[in-house]
Amino acid sequence: MADRLDSDLGEAHPARALAARWGGHLAHDRRRSVHTVRAYVATAHRFIEFLGRHRGEEIGRFAMLKLSSADLRAFLADRRASGLGAASAAREMSAVRGFLKFAAEEQGMQPQLPRTRAPRRPRTLPRPASPADAMGLAQDAADGASEPWVGQRDLAILLLLYGSGLRVSEALSLTASALPLGPAIRVTGKRGKTRVVPVLPAVREAIEAYVTACPWPIAAHQPLFVGVRGGPLNADLVRRAVRAARTRLGLADSVTPHALRHSFATHLLARGADLRSLQELLGHASLSSTQIYTAVDAAHLLDVYRHAHPRA
User: From its phi and psi, is residue 98 left (phi > 0), alpha (psi between -120 and 50) or beta?
Assistant: First the structure.
């Protein structure tokens, strides 16, 4: 369906086929996720459509090589006027730059991108859950499940997120080849990068209990965590279970499955973990992505100070 849509768009507009080829490049050569590819290609189509209106002419693929800073600023102003926030606008500009670079390289040219300043992204800190809230959330999600084995599955997944710092997608991509569990497992993260993460005894016991209770056969190279019909588990079901448990416990909306990963990082850092080790455990490509947790920990300490110090 998506390929047919891209083909139709390519026939309708000369630059659309370029956007479709860029999407293929992102998916196959850069190994970007399906969601990233979809979002970036959608941005390219919006950019092409805007240029047609802005310049009053049909935009071909060669026109992508003759743009000015004014064209990019006009596109950015148009997107901001439609209500796009600063962070989203910055992502749009990043996608446009990638698209223009691909257009130049496809023609064998050295990319010379027009200079324009992207909106400054507001610096936001991850909001970790406390250890008690993280464990309580996992247990309540298990207790609220439709069937006992489903509850054991949800408990195992959430403990894996908190105990090993996994993303939801990474946990659900695990296969039964990881069994029997040892003290560590190999995880495939973003862009196909693998890393080794520890598996705490409590996490290992929860996964083993789920495997024993699961009514479906869990064969090697098949998903470790399955749905109620035995197929691959949808990440939305995990988020839904967390949302229901969060509501029952009266926790903040910021307590999400991904917040458990933030909690893993923040609590390790508070216990003395160094940034390089934390970077490897989280699978961050850049240390700057990990350094944000130093601010989280400092904010936590300041909060404790304000609530406990008699002169705060």
Answer: alpha
261 noted as active-site residue: yes
Task: Please report the sign of the dihedral spanned by the C-alpha atoms of residue 154, residue 158, residue 159, residue 164.
Answer: positive
| Token output for 7 | 């083909």
Residues contacting 178, CB < 8 A, separation 6+: 185, 186, 224
Would residue 167 show up in a list of annotated catalytic residues for this protein? yes
- Mean pLDDT taken over the chain: 79
Catalytic position from the list 167, 204, 246, 262: 167
Mean pLDDT along residues 237-260:
89
Q: Which of 13, 153, 261, 267 is catalytic?
A: 261
Is 307 in the active site? no
How many of the other CB atoms lie within 10 Å of CB of 301?
11
45 carries an active-site annotation: no
Q: Return the bridge partners of 175, or none.
A: 223
Q: Could you write out the DSSP letters of every residue in 257-306?
A: HHHHHHHHHHHHHHTT--HHHHHHHHT-SSHHHHHHHHHHHHHHHHHHHH
Does residue 209 register a pLDDT over 90? yes
pLDDT (0 to 100) of residue 5: 36
Quote the pTM value. Answer: 0.58
DSSP at 37: H
- 193: annotated active-site residue: no
% of the chain residues with pLDDT over 90: 17
Catalogue all structural domains in the chain, each as residue range(s) with its CATH number: 2-106 (1.10.150), 131-257 (1.10.443.10)
Q: Are 118 and 128 in contact (CB under 8 A)?
A: no
Active site residue 190: yes
| Residue recorded with tokens 């293929």 | 24
